[in-house]
Amino acid sequence: MDKDEKPQVRLRAVVHGRVQGVNFRYYTVTAAQRLGITGWVANRWDRSVETVAEGPREALNEFRAFLQRGSPAARVDRVDVTWSEATGEFNRFGVRYER
Length: 99
Prior knowledge:
By secondary structure, this protein is of the alpha+beta class. It has helices spanning about 25-35, 55-70, and strands at about 10-20, 40-45, 50-55, 75-85, 95.
């Protein structure tokens, strides 16, 4: 790691509330790309939205703040967050479609 390179961490979040059908995933991808983080976002069967993101902790804290606000039409009731070590498995941020 270069001296200017910040250590990478992983955030996994499940967002509860009115978060499907309100462009939540689109706004999440846009926020992630603006912050330069990688990972994915997906709708879950229980009407929540899950996201896994990797990047510098500072960027992920901003991402977490976005998740707590959500898209303009969303109503976020709760965000469950877990932190772990980054794996480096992602090269971009996109939507994951569950099967």
